[in-house]
């Protein structure tokens, strides 16, 4: 897995922040963007896409994953998640969805003051559900 430094974390976060402007959030007004770094080095962006039928909405993180998986990417180093102002952290559904592919991935968010926070996905979802036979660290 490619290592990446603070600069790349900041870049990933800025990519997520830019992406959030493309979010479709007419109901909540809470625009979220994500930037997912695949092992190939490619970055996949995602935004939340809401729907008049609320349950049909999808979060930015899952949008990014669906794009990446559908393009053949299978392993991931990190995901940055951003909103316009407040810290945006992945919801429970997204944590489980992402855990399927990358429990060791870094999740990069940003506190209101501008400080980046980096946590492993498995810290955000301890003992996530998995049917895979190999033991998870
Ligand atoms: Zn979510």
Report on the structure:
With 137 residues, the protein is α+β, with helices and mostly antiparallel strands. The protein has 4 helices and 5 strands; from the N terminus they run H-E-E-H-E-H-E-E-H. The protein has a 5-stranded mixed sheet. The chain is globular and about 40 Å long. 35% of the residues are buried. The model has no long low-confidence stretch (mean pLDDT 92). Bound molecules: zinc ion (ZN). The site of zinc ion (ZN) has 6 residues, from helix 3.
Give a brief outline of the structure.
This protein is of the alpha+beta class and 137 residues long. The protein has helices spanning 6-19, 60-70, 92-99, 121-124, and strands spanning 32-38, 43-47, 76-83, 106-110, 116-120.
List the helices and strands and how they pair.
Layout: H1 6-19, E1 32-38, E2 43-47, H2 60-70, E3 76-83, H3 92-99, E4 106-110, E5 116-120, H4 121-124
Bound molecules: zinc ion.
GO biological process, one term: pyrimidine-containing compound metabolic process
Active site: 61 (proton donor)
Domain CMP/dCMP-type deaminase: 7-132
């Amino acid at each position: 897995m490619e290592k990446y430094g603070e600069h790349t974390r900041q870049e990933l976060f800025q990519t997520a922040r830019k992406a959030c402007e493309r979010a479709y959030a007419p109901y909540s007004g809470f625009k979220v963007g994500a930037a997912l770094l695949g092992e190939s080095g490619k970055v996949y962006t995602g935004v939340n896409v809401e729907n008049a039928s609320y349950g049909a909405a999808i979060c930015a993180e899952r949008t990014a994953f669906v794009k990446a998986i559908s393009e053949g990417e299978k392993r991931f180093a990190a995901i940055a998640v951003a909103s316009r102002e407040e810290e945006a952290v992945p919801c429970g559904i997204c944590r489980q969805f992402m855990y399927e592919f990358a429990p060791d991935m870094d999740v990069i968010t940003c506190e209101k003051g501008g400080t980046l926070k980096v946590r492993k996905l498995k810290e955000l979802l301890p003992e996530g559900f998995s049917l895979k036979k190999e033991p998870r660290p």
